Structures are given as C-alpha cells and as structure tokens.
C-alpha cells in the first residue's frame, strides 16, 4: 500500500482492527497474483518474454520478498496501532534509505535531481501536516 491508499483505507474503513487490515491486504495480494498470472502465461506462449527459471536471480527475489513481508507486517501493525501519520513518515524515510542503500551497494550516484525531488517530497509532506484552521487563516 502506498501513502495515498493508506489514507483512503483509513477514510473508508475507519479504525480497523488487525484482522480487517490483514484480510484486506491478503485479498489484495491474491487478486494481484491471479490477475498477473495470465499475463505471464501469455508472454511465455507468445514468446514476447523469454525467461527460464534458471535465468531468474533467485537470491534477489527471495530477499526482496522477505523484506516485503516484513514491511507489510509492520505496516499492518502500524495501521492498527498507531496513526497513519507515522506510516506515511516511515514510507517517506524509506525513500532516503533506499537511495542510501543504492549508493552503498551499487555505487549509484545520489545526484542533484534526487536531492531536489526528496526535498520537494518532504516539503509536501510537511504542508499536509498544517491543520485546516491554520490553512484557512493563511489563505485569508
């Protein structure tokens, strides 16, 4: 779930319990799996995408899935026990941490464009934290 979908989930469901959030994310994962599976079969038969199981980078795929499981488990816990503000803040910080990990492990550049984009994301997030009453006063 991205930051916008967490806010939508919170508005539509309200204060959900752990079981509701787990069921929703499980259904979302199953739906994604069943909808994407036919595309993979079509790509294999039409030979648009040629890939064999031995060509796949299994170490990276298993590591990514394990980290995604931890992320989603922590997100479920965060949605049910804290505010969505903390979850959104964590997602925003993960952008910086992903860029740092890319720099450390892949020697990718953290150029000026990424720095400016990160600053804009942080400013946008901080602007969303302004209470509605102060926003109305500022626009008058």
Descriptive overview:
By secondary structure, this protein is an all-alpha fold. Helix content is 80%, strand content 0%. Helix 1 packs antiparallel against helix 4 and helix 4 packs antiparallel against helix 5. The longest helix has 29 residues. The radius of gyration is 20 Å and the shape is extended. The relative contact order is 0.08. The mean pLDDT is 75.
| Mean pLDDT across every amino acid position | 75
What gross morphology would you assign? extended
- What is the C-alpha radius of gyration, as a whole number of Å? 20 Å
CA-CA gap between termini = 36 Å
Strand tally, please?
0
Count the helices. How many?
Answer: 6
Outline:
The chain has about 140 residues and is an all-alpha fold. It contains 6 helices and no strands.
Which helices and strands appear, and what pairs or packs with what?
Blueprint: H1 3-13, H2 18-46, H3 58-81, H4 84-106, H5 112-128, H6 132-139
Question: What key attributes describe this structure?
Answer:
140 residues, mainly alpha, 6 helices
């Amino acid at each position: 779930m991205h930051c916008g979908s967490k806010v939508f989930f919170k508005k539509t469901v309200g204060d959900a319990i752990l079981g509701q959030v787990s069921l929703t994310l499980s259904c979302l994962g199953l739906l994604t799996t069943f909808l994407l599976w036919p595309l993979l079969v079509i790509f294999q038969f039409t030979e648009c995408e040629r890939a064999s199981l031995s060509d796949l980078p299994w170490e990276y795929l298993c590591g990514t899935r394990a980290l995604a499981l931890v992320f989603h488990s922590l997100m479920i816990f965060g949605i049910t026990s804290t505010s969505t503000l903390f979850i959104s803040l964590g997602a925003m910080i993960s952008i910086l941490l992903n860029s740092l990990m890319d720099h450390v492990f892949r020697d990718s550049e953290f150029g000026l464009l990424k720095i400016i984009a990160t600053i804009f994301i942080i400013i946008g997030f901080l602007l969303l934290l302004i209470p509605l009453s102060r926003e109305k006063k500022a626009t008058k």
